[in-house]
Amino acid sequence: MTSTADTNTTTTDTATGAATGGRLGPEALRERALEALTTARERTALLTDSVDDGELTAQHSPLMSPLVWDLAHIGNQEEQWLWREVAGRDALRPEIDPLYDAFAHPRSERPSLPLLGPSEARAYAADVRTRVLDVLTEVRPDGRPLLDEGFAFGMIAQHEQQHDETMLITHQLRKGPAALDAPPPPVHPATPLPAEVLIPGGPFTMGTSDEPWALDNERPAHVRTVPAFHIDTVPVTNGAYLAFMADGGYTERRWWQPEGWAQIREHGIVAPLFWRQENGQWLRRRFGVTEPVPEDEPVVHVSWYEADAYARWVGRRLPTEAEWEKAARHDPVTGRSHRYPWGDADPGPDHANLGQRHLRPARAGSYPAGASPLGVRQLIGDVWEWTASDFLPYPGFRAFPYKEYSEVFFGPDHKVLRGGSFAVDAVACRGTFRNWDYPVRRQIFAGFRTARSAELD
Ligand SMILES: [Fe+2]
To answer: Which residue among 250, 385, 417, 455 is least packed, with the fewest CB closer than 10 Å?
Structure first.
């Protein structure tokens, strides 16, 4: 996924003016930045303190870096952007920069590098943070776009949280007994919901120009006209996906794109990643625990090809990225696009399953307080949602603060995912937030919902 100088492609309530896109005063901005950086570091500590040094330096999957790489890379990016670029100070450890340059070394290669060891990596990241907090106290806006509304601090907090998601994926791929624990998501009363919601046709505002910490690929705001369509009220569940499997979903070529068919044949894929069948029952492994697949939870760990095949089997299709964002942000009564399905308030625990508070998706139909104006549920949190769309720039896109953030990933190789998962922090999740990955990718916390064009009624 999407993170500064590292991608999987190879993925608060602050009661502040930011909630409405308004400009904050310097003190409120500092507070917001401090809170975001602190929250991220607490999460990083939890993910890296929960395993021993041997596990920190091990490569649990060739798809992932050793956790100790992520830890020092987080510190290195923070040093490069906030200590050197923002504060104009000299490099602390220039000799380690190349080791933590995500473009210089693919993940599979990183264990063979002379990386900082666990205690050294922790000390380095802590040293950078101490210095950065001084910078945060002293820095004054100076007209540089990087400092506008504290953007650089927001970018680095998002970067760390994105690596916290990456590290959670590493935890999921790691063998051995559970190292993490979290309470289950809240149980909201099950109310009968319609299977799908009609989103009326017409223009809406996609993307943003005034969200202070939005990344370059979310910008600028622009008008898109989207014909009427229907979208699933909730993400596709394990139970629905089991029906696809039972109906020969993985054995009938007609549902699959040629590349997806080739992938499942080559790798013998017959179910979502981390699932296995025992005595006729489907089980899944989740953070070191094997448990029966819960039928009422959104399906997760499926590739874009699996999502696309399911949608075809059920006589539907994946929503386009514009359809997804319209369903998530557009209020047909006011004509406005909001920051989130529920409005402009920052996400709270009643709105969405975010922030690794719960290490699983919530039951489909949960979070009524997070519903869109038309009643679509769980667009934010729970599982990333694959869309039909390639990752492309919006009209008027400008790379910021550098081309490797997003621009080098634009094109048909990557599909867009939206909405964030239970593993994503609120600081890195908005109605406009765009994630991207290869369509074969399965270890990410991705599921999907389906749609259909209304003209076919
Ligand atoms: Fe990174």
So the answer is: 455
Distance of CA 108 from the midpoint of ligand 1 (Å): 15
As averages over each run of 10 residues, the pLDDT of the chain (457 residues) reads 39 33 78 97 98 95 94 98 97 96 89 94 98 95 92 97 98 94 91 96 97 97 98 98 98 98 98 97 97 98 98 98 98 97 97 98 97 98 98 97 92 98 97 98 98 81
Q: Are residues 126 and 223 in the same domain?
A: no
Q: Are residues 61 and 147 in the same domain?
A: yes
Alpha-carbon span 391 to 327, nearest angstrom: 19
CATH number, position 453: 3.90.1580.10
Output the CA 100–ligand 1 centroid distance in Å: 9
Cβ(17)–Cβ(24) below 8 Å: yes
Domain boundary pick from 141, 173, 205: 173
Structural domain range at position 233: 184-457
Q: How far, in Å, is the centroid of ligand 1 from the Cα of 64? A: 12
Q: 125 CA to middle of ligand 1, Å?
A: 14
Other beta carbons within 10 Å of 114:
8
Report yes or no on 2 lying in a domain.
Answer: no
Rounded to the nearest angstrom, the distance between the alpha carbon of 73 and the centre of ligand 1 is: 7
What residue has token string 């699932």?
275
C-alpha 3 to ligand 1 mean position (Å): 5
- At 226, give phi and psi (nearest 5°): -120, 120
Question: Which residues, including other chains, have CB under 8 Å from residue 415's CB and lie 6 or more apart?
Answer: 304, 386, 387, 388, 389, 390, 391, 436, 437, 438, 439
How many structural domains are present in the chain? 2
Residues 203, 155 within the same domain: no
User: DSSP 3-state assignment of 353?
Assistant: coil
Q: Indicate which CATH number applies to the domain containing 131.
A: 1.20.120.450
DSSP 294-344: PTTSBP-S--HHHHHHHHHHTT-BPPPHHHHHHHHHB-TTT-PBPSBTTBS
Which of 117, 145, 173 represents a domain boundary (last residue)? 173
Look up tokens 């310097």; give the residue: 26
